[in-house]
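Renewal narrative, Specific Aim 1. Our central claim is that a sequence can be written position by position from structural information alone. The example that follows is taken directly from our test logs and has not been curated for this report. It begins with the structure tokens describing the chain, in the order in which they were read.
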């Protein structure tokens, strides 16, 4: 492995609570302020250029590994929250798995079967939660540090193996397919518009803050 690997625990949205980030189509995560209090905290974020992200999505089929990104580039936006906003970008040519086709971190219906990630399961064993999925969420929901090298190797090896076995239909063609449910309520053009609006807002807020500082001098 040539870079550190960080797990990103993605929130499981309700059907009436649309989640837009990550913007898979543009290889972007964080411009909505998502994870801004932990992993992407503007002052404390440990992720550097060249690091990688492992996106994990929970749902009715258990925790699944949607994507291990190519190396990321970090953008520190002055806009967003009062402390700014961290956005991470990568080569958008690599799309995530559909949730229902992504490698399962653990077999939720048979907790003794740890599937492709036995070292990760062993590392979670001491966590005081009733299920292995709950243990994972407890350990990584607010974690800001990279995975231990042996766990990172395990995730990347299993992900690469799943990639080699997969076909085109195993990967998303639309954002909603990476969620535990899919209703395709937003079009590709709407997603592009939303992403561009987020970036414009970050830029405009940054300009406004800069002007206020200049006026106060």
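The sequence written for that structure reads:
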């Amino acid at each position: 492995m040539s870079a550190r690997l960080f797990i990103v625990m993605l929130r499981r949205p309700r059907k009436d609570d649309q989640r837009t980030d990550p913007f898979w189509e543009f290889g972007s995560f964080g411009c909505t302020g998502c994870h801004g209090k932990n992993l992407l905290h503007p002052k404390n974020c440990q992720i550097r250029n060249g690091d990688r992200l492992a996106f994990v999505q929970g749902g009715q089929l258990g925790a699944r590994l949607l994507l291990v990104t190519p190396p990321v580039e970090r953008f520190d936006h002055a806009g967003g929250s009062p402390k700014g906003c961290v956005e991470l970008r990568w080569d958008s040519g690599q799309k995530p798995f559909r949730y229902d086709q992504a490698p399962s971190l653990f077999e939720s219906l048979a907790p003794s079967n740890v599937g492709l990630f036995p070292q990760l399961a062993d590392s979670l064993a001491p966590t005081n939660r009733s299920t292995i999925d709950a243990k994972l969420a407890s350990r990584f929901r607010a974690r800001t540090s990279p995975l231990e090298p042996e766990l990172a190797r395990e995730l990347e090896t299993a992900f690469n193996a799943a990639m080699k076995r997969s076909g085109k239909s195993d990967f998303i063609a639309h954002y909603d397919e990476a969620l535990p449910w899919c209703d395709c309520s937003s079009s590709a053009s709407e997603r592009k518009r939303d992403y561009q609006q987020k970036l414009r807002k970050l830029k405009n807020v940054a300009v406004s803050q800069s002007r206020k500082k200049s006026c106060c001098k």
